[in-house]
Design a protein that fits this description.
Layout lengths: L10 H14 L7 E4 L6 H4 L2 E7 L17 E7 L2 E7 L10 H14 L3 E10 L9 E9 H4 L26 H13 L6 E8 L8 H9 L4 E3 L3 H9 L3 E11 L12 H19 L16
Parallel strand pairs: 1-4, 1-5, 5-9, 6-7, 7-8
Antiparallel strand pairs: 2-3, 3-4, 5-8, 6-9
Helix pairs in contact: 1-3, 3-7
Bound molecules: the ligand O=P(O)(O)O[C@@H]1C[C@H](O)[C@@H](CO)O1 and guanine.
GO cellular component, one term: cytoplasm
Organism: Ciona intestinalis (Transparent sea squirt)
Pfam families: PNP_UDP_1
């Protein structure tokens, strides 16, 4: 598998995976897909009447190799709505080409998904952000994409979408407004931000000089995922909303002993899991429901 071809991305392969999942889904007909970021697999635990399908069973799915990513799909209901939840995602740094990272989104398209909520763990670059903040993604800078790593490389399959998809509307404006309103209803204003997500390849965290560059370029948070999923989803017409959990401070000063590690990322995710779940499940205490807007 190389990143300069998409030989495995054939419509036929996507269809085989989708047909396999349809045979497992029972009466669940999800229009909403949820992707759990590092340490946020708990989002899948709130799904009711779970039907669990391991990635290892699904044709053409690869393994999720990162701690905090379970490697299974969960079908069922959240707040009475049918959903499918990816407990674990694929990252470029795991050695997968872009089309492999985006593959589950094309499968989601074929099983009927119309909207995806992607979550991730990210480092806070914006000096006003605190560890534990949520950042609703309003835009991204894809350093991987700009450098030529993209799920859309190679021949375009026009049955999914156009050769040159726009990305200025990647993160759905109406859904973002509703999501923020929902957060506000829940009393989350103090830690709800929005901003620009910078996607870097990883797996090393950034140097101080790199982070200063990202800050200058308008980045608010740094992470190693999500944009390949977003690009694949938007290419095939799935609406996207995405939320980062700021799991750690990005270190922008030389004169410090602070550092960052994946255990800290997982710890913060664990500490904030409950609020993230409440936001995603549209707690009854919120007057605003962001999920149903385009998905009745
Ligand atoms: O899958 P996400 O983007 O939530 O995971 C982040 C990025 C790396 O995989 C890892 C680094 O700690 O967390
Ligand atoms: N690139 C990057 N990804 C992260 N994921 C969680 N924290 C970080 C971070 O500080 N940098």
């Amino acid at each position: 598998m190389t990143s300069s071809s998409n030989e495995g991305y054939s419509t036929e392969k996507v269809r085989v995976s989708a047909d396999f999942l349809k045979s497992k889904m029972g009466n669940v007909k999800p229009k909403i897909g949820i992707i759990c970021g590092s340490g946020l697999s708990g989002l899948g635990e709130v799904v009711e009447n779970k039907i669990v399908v391991k990635y290892s069973e699904i044709p053409s799915f690869v393994e999720s190799t990162v701690p905090g990513h379970k490697g299974q799909l969960v079908f069922g209901q959240i707040s009475g709505k049918d959903v499918v939840c990816m407990q674990g995602r694929f990252h470029p740094y795991e050695g997968y080409p872009g089309w492999v990272v985006g593959f589950p989104l094309r499968v989601m398209k074929l099983i009927g998904i119309e909207m995806v909520l992607a979550t991730n763990a990210a480092g806070g670059i914006n000096p006003e952000f605190k560890v534990g903040d949520f950042m609703l993604i309003k835009d991204h800078i894809s350093f991987t994409g700009l450098a030529g790593y993209t799920p859309l490389v190679g021949p375009n399959d026009s049955s999914f979408g156009p050769r040159f998809p726009p990305m200025n509307d990647a993160y759905d404006k109406n859904l973002r407004t509703l999501f923020k309103q929902c957060a506000s209803d829940l009393g989350y204003d103090d830690f709800m931000r929005d901003g620009v997500y910078c996607n870097v390849f990883g797996p090393s965290y950034e140097t101080i000089a790199e982070l200063r560059l990202l800050l200058k370029l308008g980045g608010d948070a740094a992470g190693m995922s999500t944009v390949q999923e977003v690009v694949t989803a938007r290419h095939c017409g799935i609406k996207v909303i995405a939320c980062s959990l700021i799991t750690n401070e990005c270190i922008l000063e030389y004169d410090t002993d602070k550092t960052v590690c994946h255990d800290e990322v997982l710890q913060t995710a664990n500490d904030r899991a409950h609020q993230m779940q409440t936001l995603v499940t549209n707690s009854q205490t919120s007057r605003t429901h962001w999920q149903p807007l385009h998905c009745s």
